[in-house]
Amino acid sequence: MKQILLMLPVFAFVTSARAQFTKGDRYLGGYASFNYSNDDLNTSNGQKNFYIAFSPSFTRFKTDRKATGFRFTLGYENNKTKFTFGEQKREDWLAQAGLFGLRIFPLGKGFYLSTEAGGNIGYRNSNNTTVAAPGDRDKRNEYNVNGYFTPGLGYKLTDRLVLGVNLNSVVGIGYSHVESRYTNPSGVTTKQQADRLSLFSSLNNTTVGQLGFSFMWKLR
To answer: 3-state class of 179 per DSSP?
Structure first.
């Protein structure tokens, strides 16, 4: 009897860890991403960056620990770079859509770790201006394809509501095609095109990365 009583807490922990999600569960959700960095903008050379995005999503569990889904993202970025001769400002608007796979690692008590890997196709519009040179403008249209890996921590608040925090795009690989149109202060315009393949990460030495705060609502 004593051994049975000692085993009850262990059984309860294992049961709660395995019963967080069920095969066939469907969720509507989304997350907001935020990133801010300030690298000595008050000096003669520095950079300040602000980024925010919102991503609605649909997720369906294939097993109690594996799911697949679809996500659409809209985002805005504002970047200021200070040079010895002046300041450059850039505004970006972006949109992308893609598929992802989700893996759950239960911790018990409603908590779990997650890993997400996916791919997106997207579009980004950029406008650059230089304060020290009125009329100096650089406009870019970028078309891209990328893959990414994102770890996270989640909590099942109720049977239908799930909250989470993610470290978005810790590592990724992407291909982009960029079409740019540059106009100098004299009004002369030049056009260029470029293709590039790159590895990227949301981690660097001036910011914690792009933190994402997510939620999922279970459909009946």
So the answer is: strand
Kindly provide the b/e burial profile for residues 170-187, where b requires at least 16 CB atoms within 10 angstroms of the residue's own CB: bebebebebebeeeeeee
* Average pLDDT of every residue of the chain: 83
CB-CB neighbours of 33 under 10 Å: 21
Amino acid type, 168: N
Cβ–Cβ < 8 Å for 82, 45: yes
Assess contact for 100 and 118: CB atoms under 8 A. yes
pTM: 0.73
- Residues sharing a CB contact under 8 Å with residue 182, sequence separation 6 or more, in sequence order: 137, 138, 139, 189, 190, 191, 192
Q: pLDDT (tens digit, 9 = 90+) per residue, 162-174?
A: 999 988 888 999 9
Alpha carbons 120 and 95: distance in angstroms, whole number: 10
CA distance 159 to 206: 39
Distance in Å from the first CA to the final CA of the chain: 41
Mean pLDDT is lowest, of 23-27, 42-46, 69-73, 174-178, for 42-46
Q: Judging by beta carbons within 10 Å of its beta carbon (0-12, 13-18, 19+), is residue 1 exposed, middle or buried?
A: exposed
Residue with tokens 């049961």: 15
The string of DSSP letters for 42-110 reads TSSSEEEEEEEEEEEEEEEESSSSEEEEEEEEEEEEEEEEEETTEEEEEEEEEEEEEEEEEEEEEEETT
Q: Is 123:98 a contact under the CB 8 Å cutoff? A: no
